[in-house]
From TrEMBL:
It catalyses: Couples ATP hydrolysis with the unwinding of duplex DNA by translocating in the 3'-5' direction. This is DNA helicase RecQ. The gene is recQ. PANTHER family: ATP-DEPENDENT DNA HELICASE Q1, DNA HELICASE RECQ FAMILY MEMBER. Keywords: ATP-binding, DNA damage, DNA recombination, DNA repair, DNA-binding, Helicase, Hydrolase, Isomerase, Metal-binding, Nucleotide-binding, Zinc. It comes from Uliginosibacterium sediminicola.
Length: 522
């Protein structure tokens, strides 16, 4: 036990410099590890308190802590906050004049800085590398470390070169931090930043105050309006859309419905973007309709909801985007409207891209994981957390927990579907397969001779919509895969179902949603 007179130095800094009573979660362990020269990879959700993990060791160790951050706005905010606490911090990026930069370099060499925030492209210049060689460095902190991932949504080419830090300054401890990294991205960070011997600190990614809901797209705008009116009258929120056009249309429409909506996308000039962002952050009850260009680095604690009118790129992206809700810890909503068209579109985007095969393979896996979330028949939070390698129990605060869907034993229909896929040669899309199951002798069916398959017409007891939904659920659970032409193919895991060794429970389609689930045809 520490006596009051000689507290642990880290705790002393936490209390006296930052004014906090105690460390949160893994902070204490991370700070101690860094303080003694260890490398660390820190995965902590947004709002978890990553900054202190490198700020305190920077103050405890001799020399200046160098913080690499891709976000200019955030850099300036953090430095300002540190200055107010009496910490000697500053930043170097493209907004600095040559004279300012030269003065900062002098301060660094003279040992007058506790912390220096640097943009990655600046850090890698020969001039700055040379400077680092002559300065005393407490540690390197690499913030938003997932930017090193070429397959991620925030890839920054300059991040790739950051492994040089380790080669040039092997004795300086490094800490890489991110709020968003699935197992594959984590591995990529370790490899690209040469963090093989770093200690891994993973905090729980759960955001218990966020309620997750996915609705099947029917009339998305109306659904959104209903969602806002019944849950978030007068609240601040973010609505994400895929295209700039849709952003503008949706914002205009919400405004016409009396909602204080603003639009944001990269097509607006800087002044407009800045004005809208400021109004959102400072104002009360502004709904920002935006592309994913909006959000990174926005520090607004009372965002009450994040809505998606289009599917995000991946579950990671979804987690990050929805993570902007409820940073103050109060009840918030993550709401998404999901339609099969979104999925088909994203799949086509992957297949038609010029990316190398292995990139496409990873993108496909990411899309499948997202699909698994949308099609979940049980707790969504469990799906989300499992994706980040965390196990959990049903949360009681998602749509699936609150109003469990009706399910039925679909083992026999699943077997019928699997056998139809197999017998027709594993290359047809859902529409054609449903035609066979329903016993419809369409031109395509007769042309391929599929009316003589033993499964022709055996599925008449289910509706088209239920069949489409069933096939989608089977795809979501990995029993079948989808090839690049939209054809369904069997996967290893379907064997147990075919042999009757495992049951397949499926969600019932609500037939009252016309046109919803049956749009699988292409
Ligand atoms: P992140 O970078 O992980 O999103 P921040 O470092 O910005 O999170 O911290 C989020 C908020 O939590 C900040 O307002 C910060 O001051 C606060 N915070 C961090 N650690 C502690 C702590 N140990 N005690 C109290 N507040 C903390
Ligand atoms: Zn749940």
């Amino acid at each position: 036990m520490n006596s009051p007179e000689s507290p642990d130095p880290a705790l002393h800094v936490l209390r006296h410099t930052f004014g906090f009573g105690a460390f949160r979660g893994e902070q204490a362990a991370i700070v101690e590890h860094l303080q003694h020269g260890g490398d660390a990879l820190v995965l902590m959700p947004t709002g978890g308190g990553k900054s202190l993990c490198y700020q305190i060791p920077s103050l405890l160790r001799e020399g200046c802590g160098i913080v690499v951050s891709p976000l200019i706005a955030l850099m300036q905010d953090q430095v300002q906050a540190l200055e107010l606490l009496g910490v000697r911090a500053t930043y170097l990026n493209s907004t600095r004049s040559a004279e300012e930069a030269a003065a900062i370099e002098q301060q660094l060499l003279a040992g007058e800085l506790d912390m220096l925030y640097v943009a990655p492209e600046r850090l890698m210049t020969p001039r700055f590398q040379n400077l680092l060689g002559r300065a005393r460095i407490a540690l390197f902190a690499i913030d938003e470390a997932h930017c090193v991932s070429q397959w991620g949504h925030d890839f920054r080419p300059e991040y790739i070169q950051l492994s040089i830090l380790h080669e040039r300054f092997p004795e300086v401890p490094r800490i890489a931090l991110t709020a968003t990294a699935d197992a594959a991205t984590r591995q990529e960070i370790v490899e690209r930043l040469a963090l093989q011997s770093a200690r891994l600190f993973v905090s729980s990614f759960d955001r218990p105050n966020i309620r997750y809901t996915v609705v099947e797209k029917d009339n998305p705008r109306k659904q959104l309006l209903r969602f806002i009116r019944s849950n978030h009258e007068g609240d601040s929120g973010i609505v994400y859309c895929l295209s700039r056009k849709k952003v503008e249309e949706t914002a205009t429409w919400l405004k016409s419905e009396g909602i204080r909506a603003l639009a944001y996308h990269a097509g607006f000039d800087a002044a407009t973007r800045e004005a809208h962002q400021t109004e959102f952050v400072r104002g009360d009850g502004v709904v920002m309709v935006a592309t994913v260009a909006f959000g990174m680095g926005i520090d607004k604690p009372d965002v009450r909801f994040v809505a998606h009118l289009d599917l995000p790129k991946s579950l990671e992206a979804y987690y990050q985007e929805t993570g902007r809700a409820g940073r103050d810890g109060l009840a918030s909503n993550a709401w998404m409207a999901y339609g099969l068209q979104d999925l088909v579109l994203l799949r086509e985007m992957i297949e038609q891209s010029q990316a190398p095969d292995e990139v496409k393979r990873v993108e496909r896996q990411k899309l499948d994981a997202l699909l698994g979330y949308c099609e979940a028949t049980a707790c969504r939070r469990e799906v989300l957390l499992r994706y980040f390698g965390e196990s959990s129990t049903p949360c009681g605060n998602c749509d699936m927990c609150l109003t469990p869907p009706e399910t039925f034993d679909a083992t026999v229909p699943a077997q019928q579907a699997l056998s139809t896929i197999y017998r027709s040669g594993q290359r047809y899309g859902a529409g054609h397969l449903v035609d066979i199951l329903q016993g419809r002798a369409t031109a395509k069916v007769t042309e391929r001779g599929h009316q003589s398959l033993s499964t022709f017409g055996i599925g008449k007891s289910l509706s088209d919509a239920q069949w489409s939904s069933l096939l989608r659920q089977m795809a979501a659970q990995g029993l079948v895969g989808v090839n690049e032409h939209g054809g369904l193919v069997l996967q290893e895991s379907c064997r147990a179902i075919l042999r009757g060794e495992a049951a397949f429970m499926a969600r019932k389609v609500r037939e009252s949603a016309p046109g919803g689930a049956s749009s699988v045809r292409r």
